[in-house]
Amino acid sequence: TIYLDHQATTPMDPAVMEVMQTACTQYFANPASPHAAGVRAFREVERARSAVARFVGGARSEIYFTSGATEANNIAIKGMADRCPGGHIVTAATEHKSVLDTCAYLREKGWSVTVLPVDAQGQVTADQVAGHLRDDTVLVSVMLANNEIGTIQPIAEIGRVTRQAGVALHCDATQGVGSLAVDVTELGVDLLTFSGHKIYGPKGVGALYISNRLTDTAPLAPLMHGGGQERGLRAGTHNTAAIIGLGTAVTLVEEVREQEARRLEKLRHAFLTELTAASGTPFRLNSGTGPDFLPHTLNLSLEGVDAQDLLPRLAGLAISTGSACNSSAQEPSHVLRAIGLPPEQIKGSIRLSFGRFTQESDAIDAARYLAGAALPEGARG
Ligand code: PLP
């Protein structure tokens, strides 16, 4: 199989697997235990916390480990909402479901939610955000980069607006941190979330950054109550091996991020060149290139093709239609609808995302394979 679905999840880097294997044998003790074995495990968890803090430009005391980005987004949004019952939240139409559905839940419970429309590229502007802030706005939540079309949002500009207004800004950076250097101060964000399994780390672990400014006076309300781990914000015994794996994953990202971004952009170009040459089926790009888009994402619509029919013919190619994160939902992609695509173009849309272990030959083979499978029946070789 040629794996081109890195936005759904990434394979683990062998270096991450190695440290996790060691962690499972050497650091199995509960990091909360006061004995020597527990203390050794605790130190490794804290080492990982330092790595994550460096990765986002925060302090160690501002990092909380969670089970992933879904949980981190829930804690961030519900935790902030809880500070202002019935208050107002601003988000954007192309956010991940873990943000949109959390906001929808809060709306049902009496909060007021503004979902900003995006332009044809999938961007919101800082002016849009500024225009919707109210006296009772408790949180703005905008993602760093989109998981279906790769659009990068102008977070630093939005951050200047929210800072000036004294409103907290949350950024779901799950899809961005693998490709873009992140600094919470430069971005002006107060809360930031991401996940291990999108950056060649393990599944079931994520991180939440919360600025100490926000928690100086009072902590955020937790979703789960129990043992008081993660300074009471996320109870439950630490997933030590996964946390250690996450620490290694972020360190590796930092080492290779820039060169990988350039390489992946070239792979995407090679794929598109080959697809254009080999394809008898016209296609339209739904994602873009250049500084406003992630370098490894490609979303395109094949004319006259239903992507759901196409997938079974592409058994050797792992790609997705719309978002695999909510593939159980049969409704058309909310992201493609939000950028104004007509239903037939949404129907023919596929998403490919290249990754750390993708070779140029994989990209070219995938393009030829796709071109062949997309031809009408009878015209296929
Ligand atoms: N946010 C974005 C932008 C995503 O792409 C995903 C992917 O699933 C998530 C959040 C959820 O992450 P997790 O699988 O760690 O819960």
Overall description:
It is built from 13 helices and 12 strands. The protein has helices at 14-26, 36-56, 69-81, 97-108, 126-132, 155-165, 184-187, 212-215, 240-278, 307-310, 334-338, 343-347, 360-374; strands at residues 2-3, 63-66, 88-92, 112-116, 137-141, 168-172, 191-195, 206-210, 283-285, 297-302, 317-318, 349-353. It has a 7-stranded mixed sheet with strand order 2-8-7-6-5-3-4, with helices on both faces. A 3-stranded antiparallel sheet has the order 9-10-12. β3, α4 and β4 form a beta-alpha-beta unit. α2 runs parallel beside α9 (240-278), α3 packs parallel to α4 (97-108) and α5 (126-132) packs parallel to α6. The radius of gyration is 21 Å and the shape is globular. The mean pLDDT is 95. Bound molecules: pyridoxal-5'-phosphate (PLP).
What about the largest sheet? 7 strands, mixed
Fraction of residues in helices?
40-55%
Rough outline:
globular
Given the structure, what is the number of helices?
13
Strand order of the largest sheet: 2-8-7-6-5-3-4
Radius of gyration: 21 Å
The number of domains is 2
Bound small-molecule species? pyridoxal-5'-phosphate
Quote the average pLDDT: 95
- Percent strand equals 5-15%
Please, what is the CATH homologous superfamily of the largest domain?
A: Type I PLP-dependent aspartate aminotransferase-like (Major domain)
What string gives the helices and strands in order?
EHHEHEHEHEHEHEEHHEEHEHHEH
Head-to-tail CA distance between termini = 20 Å
The secondary structure category is alpha/beta
- The CATH topology name of the largest domain reads Aspartate Aminotransferase, domain 2
